[in-house]
Design goal:
It is built from four helices and no strands. By secondary structure, it is mainly alpha-helical. The protein has two domains: about 1-35, no CATH class; about 35-78, no CATH class. α3 (about 50-60) runs antiparallel to α4. The longest helix is centred in the first third of the chain and has 12 residues, at about 5-15.
Length: about 80
């Protein structure tokens, strides 16, 4: 696994320069088998809102939001 590629594509995604799908495609191309994000260290909602998580997933899949907004929304959803 090439950590520099992972860092580059994560940074580009967070900057809004590429889509989350492009990140996943690149990670797959370099042999990544799993993608884990630790959101606990940032902020967490007091209650879990599964509808908000589903909405964020749909919005990122349809390219209405970028990766940074996706992370913000799922963190807010718990």
């Amino acid at each position: 696994m090439n950590n520099s590629i992972i860092r580059e594509y994560t940074d580009r995604s967070l900057a809004g320069n590429i889509t989350f799908l492009e990140v996943l495609q690149k990670l797959k191309a370099v042999g990544t088998k799993r993608y884990i994000v630790d959101l606990i260290g940032n902020r967490v909602a007091r209650e879990f809102d599964d509808g908000a998580v589903k909405s964020a997933i749909v919005d990122i899949q349809q390219r209405r939001i970028n990766y940074r907004e996706f992370l913000n929304r799922i963190m807010s959803a718990g």
